Amino acid sequence: MALPNTVRLFEMGARDGLQNESGPIIDTRIKVELINRLSDTGLSHIEAASFVSPKWVPQMGDAAAVMTEITRQPGVTYAALTPNLKGLEAAMAAGVEEVAVFGAASEAFTQKNINCSIQESLARFAPVIELAQANHIRVRGYVSTVMGCPYEGEIDPAQVAAVSRELFDMGCYEISLGDTIGVGTPLKAKRMLEAVSQQVPIEKLAAHFHDTYGQALANLYAVIEEGIAVIDASVAGLGGCPYAKGASGNVATEDVLYMLNGLGIKTGVDLTKLAQTGHWISSQLGRTSGSKVALAMGCH
Ligand code: HMG
Ligand code: MG
Question: How far apart are CA 228 and CA 179, in angstroms?
């Protein structure tokens, strides 16, 4: 298949990136400034917060403040995770225009992440999707562990396809396929996508690859070749906890953008501004950027 002319980048840094930060809670003003800076790079989709239990994910405890304090740019969608009705109601009160429910292809991961079975999670998502749609709020669906699970190991692509289909049929406008622990390799990514795209149209699918094993760019190229045109990525490769084996950030947005630019695929995003933003947030967190491209460009 020919490569796409354009790819939509969905920026994850402020949510997937910051949710795992160990150490002190990051100041709301830093999160807001990060999102505002990202809004100036040409990105059209930014995941900004997560309305989950602060006992489970303390770093996202200020989701409502973040969502109300950011400066919204026209043409930019600011999304948030909502695992249940409580989360959706809080997100709606904070003026969120797009939300996401998040499930997984693995029973064990679903239990660890959201404290229920896959079937219970789908039953929990149904009223979330219904209420969101009644309020003209778009709902994205995540499926985690699509290429492997930290608790169950191998995951059958048919199981990924089945959960993706359920979420799509329930009304999610797009299904984001998460290689949560970055264990995939290109052929595996293609096989997984082959199974899922038989159940959900490929133009309704996104790739959400963590870079734990350094395979994310290769895997992305493999799925772009198959027709994927939406990519989740995290500025400076933010994410992951240095003490948790298997947890690492999403592939760095700058690195994905450099590759897409080289392929002549348009995104509308400015690489220099993005790399500067990655440098800025990395210095706020007291480290160098996790993007090789940003480092090569002198952002350190
Ligand atoms: P639970 O304990 O089963 O829920 O957790 P519960 O309904 O029994 O409530 C327990 C307590 O949490 C109660 O408070 C609730 O009020 C509160 P208490 O009475 O004990 O004081 N609570 C909430 N508070 C704020 N906002 C809410 C909310 N819901 C309940 N929305 C629950 C179930 C889903 C809440 C919990 O398991 C949870 O918050 N999990 C979140 C896990 C998470 O955020 N993981 C990271 C995001 S997913 C991800 O990163 C993967 C992804 O990037 C894709 C990939 O890479 O694969 C998307
Ligand atoms: Mg993730």
Answer: 15
Cα 134 to Cα 283: distance, rounded to the nearest angstrom:
42
Q: What are phi and psi of 182, to 5 degrees?
A: 60, 35
Q: Is 172 a catalytic residue?
A: no
Task: Kindly state if the Cβ of 114 falls inside 6 Å of ligand 1.
Answer: yes
Q: Where are the domains of the chain?
A: 8-297
At the topology level, CATH places domain 8-297 in: TIM Barrel (3.20.20)
Tokens of 152: 């169950």
**Residue 82 main-chain phi, psi, to 5 deg:** -140, 105
pLDDT tens-place string over residues 25-47: 999 999 999 999 999 999 999 99
Find the catalytic residue in 116, 172, 241, 299: 241
Predicted confidence at residue 2, as pLDDT, reads 87
Q: Whose CA is nearest to atom 25 of ligand 1?
A: 53
Task: Write the pLDDT tens digit of every residue in 155-188.
Answer: 999 999 999 999 999 999 999 999 999 999 999 9
Which tokens go with 68? 């109300």
Atom of ligand 1 nearest to the CA of 144: 57
Evaluate whether 209 touches 183 at the Cβ level (below 8 Å).
no
- Give the span between the Cα atoms of 277 and 33, in whole angstroms: 10
Burial call 216-240: b when 16+ CB within 10 Å, e when fewer: bbebbbbbbeebbbbbbbbbbbbbb
Q: What are phi and psi of 215, to 5 degrees?
A: -105, -5
- Closest ligand to the CA of 50: 1
Inter-residue contact 81 to 87 (CB < 8 Å) = yes
